[in-house]
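**Protein of interest**
===
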Amino acid sequence: MADNVFAPRGRRDFFRLAGATIAALAAAPGAALGQETKLKMATIGSGREGSALGSLFVKAGHPVMFSSRHPEELHGLVAGLGPLAKAGTVAQAVAFGEVVLLVVPYTAVAGIGKEYGPALAQKQLVIDVSNPIPRRDGEALVAQVAAEGGAGLATAKMLPGAKLVRAFNAIGSRTLAELAQRQGDQKIGVPIAGDDPAAIALASNLIREIGFEPVLIGGLAMGKYLVPGTPLGGPHTPAQIREIVASLK
């Protein structure tokens, strides 16, 4: 796991330090926020959510490799997105991406960590979109994740050293493209949780590129709230997210 630079601090100190760090990174010459150079991105998992998210990043100008155990089945997806999109195996996607979107059933995360953990630890950012879902992953796994402090901390344990940020965990794939187009008072926020300041800054910038407003809710320990069925599930404006977070314990 990335060093939790925010762990010893209270919530107020967390946000003060996070805000100052992200602002400094954004202002630094050549800051690695992906604004000038379109980063290569990869999806581990190309189901409905992985395909929808990856497609938004292609449309924002990023080269994206969608991965699957059967990449030949992704031909229609990548053909429809143009030359910035390609398909590959998980190994090829991990090698390709500077930023990796982890969008798999939660039962697959441990295996991915065992096989690709060292490579993922070298990436600028791993966006953890995977959720433990009882009806799909089983009650026992969900209970284990809860005992480990929630999905943020559990994923970090399985991907040691990875610069993780949880995001897009509770916005459905069917509405993602439409929600990305909203502006003004209707703009949709994306609650995010992470411990690494540079990864948070990069994730925030990427989220803005595809039409959403990132809202940092805390460190990876707060990732337990970024699953369907919690108050943060579903689309919310940034103001609504901040109001909800203020009520969480």
About this structure: The CA atoms of residues 52 and 221 lie 27 Å apart. Residues 11-247 form a domain with the Rossmann fold fold (CATH 3.40.50.720). Confidence is low (pLDDT under 50) at residues 1-8, 27-35. Residues 11-27 form the longest helix (17 residues).
